[in-house]
Design brief:
Chain lengths: 523, 292
């Protein structure tokens, strides 16, 4: 059976996606994703779309070797009972739970059909009936200033036998809001709110998707700005995480130094776009805050000072026995495990699995950069620490190269205004006003209409890993379905596996080494 | 050992000596100023993603308590002209970008207040956001002026306000020097800091946590999402009654996954606007609340 092959950031007519019956569909999934090929192909999204009193199940499988994404679908009746494939392909377990919860589909033979984003009071956690074991419940409110989720440990003495994670406390119904809020600015703001610590990368995914639906090609300058912002976000959050990792092993010097090293990077984001997390830095169709030669100079100076202190601290940590003894051989996830659960991004790379959208499905300017993903092979907390240190330096290098050719944003601004139909001879304010009205009308986004009957997909490599946004438009050109997948959706399972056999006192450091998103998962 | 000293030496002095007077770098979007310039008001009002900009003599919709716009605070008649409600503003800067002569966001980060109504910035006004002395509780400054321990509750926050609350404790901002810290247990806390628009799934945990804090205690709302629901709340046009029906049928423009009833039954002591609230907004707000 043929599948539809598309590239990252493409949009195609929804009707061209092959439709098959569920039996063919599920056998094809198993064939594509069975364990032998797991390192080449992985599922980037799998969701249901109610259409004509039926449910269309659509799956998108990224093929890293061919650099494209295979899409195919099937029809199932509403509230159908179908055979689960989660036993053969464990990576799909969470997707099936989501489809089941959202569309009332029964997956027969699913190994553990538990709620995904609802939090019933009487939920029966996994338990083992044994006098020598005890359970530890943590959350939803945690000890630190972090988001909510419930962790249930089964321990033998200090040793963790099993961890079950219950999420859903952060559920805000954000996918549904993408349909309700029809103005471009509302949707842009929503994209920034999916996960505040990944505001830039989610905005990049949203902008690529939206522009693709409108048949708009972003300017080189806009792509340049988005690439730069994505790498700055990676530097900032990785640095902050290194601080938190040091904090969790009570290494105060590392915690303080990395903590303060993050400040100049996020303050630079503020100097550029007025927000430390890069919110409002990226919008579809235009660059609200053009990059100037002046701020390029500020960034270069910032990075020079930053890099010196960052490298010095990194060297200290990798030779400091009391830190190393806490990080090494702690929270191991093996290559087999990350392949099986379909882990993505930094988590996968720390265990030796090469998953990086920047190299496998290049977007923005990553095609020109010749990005080589950094791989580690031990899968422990130390690997995830090292990968952060090396990725930060890699990103600093990319930014240095990019700053040698700062593009001219003047042209781009002029084009955006021209499209909005603003008369160039009018006063500054009224030209902007016209642009504003254009940007906010439902059907017209800066002069661009969303094409009807389309399916669009965009992938972006956030600092955690692969972000996937999908959209389907109806016959009127309204968005009929918006699907968001944060890398945490795959990677929470890795944390559950990592803590097995570890002391419960090592849980915070394991957790911090992944630093997964609750709101990105719960949506 | 010697390399540790080297690292220490290379850091120099990182702390902000005076957090009440520090300047923020770049184009920070703090308290806005609205000029008297004549512009297309309808277009301007229409830009805002959360309906924070309103026109004419309007009453101030509190929208603290309910998911939908609901006036749970005494209505206050605004002066003629345009106003921006910082409790709803996401500081996205879109209005300033399109109408640079009409709206300008200043670098004033001291935008915290104890009165929801004081978050409304009106046309032609360029005065700092102030505290309402009539709402001050004497026991707060008496008991908490030298030591304030807070329990943070993230209720569907997007991890940006949580991030900035965390940053208040780093070596740059060092809120700990004022005796203000985040603690692990509500039993150790003098109040709670809520972030996020408050999801249904977190509403019960929030109530349990608040109940566990010994009295007297304070409630702080950090970030626009917490104060009004931000982008997740219903639009201004939809009033309460319509919304109740609309939520059931899912035609209301807001998220039906929120439950903001906690705020209907409790009095908020401090509002910290921002998306996210800047650490300097947070620290100055808490200092003003406790050290008056």
């Amino acid at each position: 059976m043929d599948t539809l092959r598309m590239h990252n950031g493409d949009s195609v007519a929804f009707s061209t996606i092959p439709v098959m019956d569920y039996h063919c569909f599920s056998s094809l999934i198993v064939e594509k994703l069975s364990s032998g090929t797991a390192s080449v192909r992985h599922c980037v999204n799998y969701f249901g779309y109610p259409l004509d009193e039926e449910l269309r199940l659509v799956i998108a499988i990224a093929d890293d070797a061919m650099h494209d994404i295979e899409v195919f679908s099937c029809r199932v009746p509403e509230c159908a009972a179908i055979q689960s494939v989660a036993v053969q392909v464990p990576a799909l377990s969470r997707f099936e739970r989501e489809i089941s919860e959202n569309h009332n589909i029964t997956f027969e033979g699913h190994p553990w059909m538990k709620p995904l984003r609802t939090t019933p009071d009487d939920y029966p956690f996994y338990s083992i009936d044994d006098e020598e074991l005890h359970e530890v419940g943590v959350g939803p409110i945690h000890a630190g200033v972090i988001e909510p989720g419930h962790f249930r440990f089964i321990c033998s003495g200090e040793k963790v036998l099993n961890l079950e994670i219950m999420l859903g406390y952060q559920h805000r119904g954000i996918e549904r809001l993408f349909l309700k809020k029809k103005r471009l600015i509302e949707r842009s703001v929503l994209a920034e709110s999916i996960a505040g610590d990944t505001a830039v990368s989610h905005s990049v995914a949203f902008a690529s998707l939206y522009e693709s639906l409108c048949g708009f090609k972003a300017s080189e300058a806009a792509l340049w700005a988005r690439t730069l912002a994505s790498e700055l976000e990676r530097i900032a959050i990785h640095t902050g995480d290194l601080s938190a990792i040091c904090g969790d092993v009570a290494y105060q010097l590392g915690s303080a130094v990395y903590g303060r090293l993050r400040t100049p990077i996020i303050n630079f984001m503020q100097q550029w776009c007025g927000n430390r997390l890069g919110k409002s830095c990226i919008r579809p169709f235009y660059t609200p805050y053009p990059f100037t030669a002046e701020i390029a100079q500020i960034l270069l100076t910032t990075l020079t000072v930053y890099e010196r202190d960052f490298v010095e601290m990194g060297k200290k940590i990798s030779h400091f026995p009391s830190v190393l003894s806490r990080l090494e051989h702690t929270g191991i996830v093996t290559l087999d495990q990350v392949s099986e659960i379909g882990a993505v991004g930094m988590t996968a790379r720390a265990s030796g699995l090469e998953r990086d959208i920047r190299s496998s499905h290049p977007y923005l300017l990553y095609g020109n950069i010749d990005h080589r993903p950094i791989l580690k092979h031990h899968g422990d907390v130390y690997s995830r620490t090292q990968i952060r240190k090396e990725e930060v330096l890699q990103s600093v290098g990319y930014i240095r190269d990019m700053l040698e050719n700062v593009p001219d944003f003047g042209i781009e601004t002029a084009i955006t205004r021209g499209v909005a139909g603003a008369a160039a001879d009018k006063a500054d304010t009224s030209a902007n006003a016209a642009a504003a009205v254009g940007a906010n009308s439902a059907a017209v986004n800066l002069g661009h209409a969303v094409a009807p009957g389309m399916f669009a997909i965009s992938l972006a490599e956030g600092w955690r890993g692969e972000i996937c946004h999908c959209a389907i438009t109806d016959s009127q050109g309204e968005i009929a379905l918006y699907k968001i997948k944060d890398p945490s959706f795959h990677n929470w399972t890795a944390l559950e596996l990592a803590v097995r056999g570890n002391e419960i006192s090592d849980f915070p450091i394991c957790n911090k080494s992944f630093n997964l998103s609750y709101c990105g998962h719960d949506l | 050992m010697i390399d540790t000293f080297k690292i220490l030496f290379h850091q120099g002095k990182q702390y902000i000596p005076d957090v009440t007077k520090a300047k923020v770098p770049g184009i920070f979007r703090g308290r806005p100023v609205i000029s008297n310039e004549k512009v297309d008001l309808q277009a301007l009002v229409g830009i805002c993603p959360t309906g924070a900009i309103s026109e004419g003599a309007t009453t101030v919709a509190g929208s603290v308590g309910s998911n939908c716009a609901k006036s749970s605070l005494p209505a206050q008649t605004a002066s003629e002209g345009l106003s921006i409600d910082l409790g709803k503003c996401l500081f996205c800067g879109e209005c300033e970008r399109c109408f640079p002569r009409k709206i300008h966001f200043t670098q004033d980060y001291k935008i915290a207040t104890n009165n929801r109504n004081n978050l409304i910035v009106r046309e032609g006004e360029d005065t700092p956001i102030h505290f309402d002395d009539t709402l001050r509780r004497p026991e707060i400054s008496r008991l908490f002026r030298h030591s304030l321990k807070l329990r943070q509750v993230s209720a569907a926050g997007d991890n940006s306000c949580e991030w900035e609350l965390g940053a208040t404790g780093n070596v740059n901002f060092d809120m700990g020097r004022f005796g203000i810290e985040f603690v692990a247990s509500p039993r150790h806390a003098d109040g709670i800091v809520i972030t996020g628009p408050i999801s249904k799934n977190m509403s019960r945990a929030l109530q349990i946590c608040y109940d566990a804090v010994p009295a007297p205690k304070i409630i702080v709302l950090a970030g626009t999402d917490a104060i009004s629901g931000g982008i997740f709340s219903c639009s201004v046009a939809e009033n309460d009654h319509i919304c109740a029906d609309m939520l059931n049928n899912d035609v209301c423009s807001g998220s039906r996954e929120l439950d903001r009833s906690f705020l209907e039954t409790h009095t908020v002591d401090l509002f910290l606007p921002g998306n996210p609230a800047h650490p300097l907004t947070i620290i100055n707000g808490l200092l003003e609340l406790t050290r008056f």
